[in-house]
Amino acid sequence: MNVLIIYAHPEPKSLNGSLKDFTVRHLERAGHTVQVSDLYAMNRKASLDAHDTSERHSGERFVASLESKHAFENGLQSEDIAREHHSGNCRITASAHFSVYAYGLAYDVGEHSDARWGERYGEGRFAGKRAMLIVTTGGWESHYSARGINGPIDDVLFPIQHGVLYYPGFEVLPPFVVYRTSRVDDAKYAEVSEALGRRLDTL
Q1: pLDDT digits over 48-57, tens only?
Q2: What is the CATH architecture assignment of 2-48+85-200?
């Protein structure tokens, strides 16, 4: 199986970074091919603008959806976008690693795909492929329950799982979430990584 990991965290030595490294090692040991897009290491531009294409479709008002479609269909995307399109085309399963910060998603993960993957809900170019979020958060698990202060974790992740992944056709697998990250010691990390390994084996 070919796997693309989209990693979005500013600190390589963080829990998130460690889990990304574990994911790569675990999948490669199982015989899978893994590619990592490290958004922070790439210093990737998150904003969507007219510079995402080498030739404008219209010389007047910038209409993002029309310009993105024109650039994609005519091979006019900027180099970073074209590179990520190639990564997505070559991969079967996508995994996104990032942290949740008070209802916000690290490094604008959504913008990463807006210019690259957008098609139409459930019928896009990634139909038949699978995606899974691997998420860390400092909050208690109970905080992300139906009656929790932050609301259900699936509601918090809905913009990514539905609006970013399902939109271009991915089959979205249940997320793997690590709660209370500040309390993850060596014993807890061993427990978390073992559980993550079991999830990865089901991809």
Answers
A1: 676 667 776 6
A2: 3-Layer(aba) Sandwich (3.40)
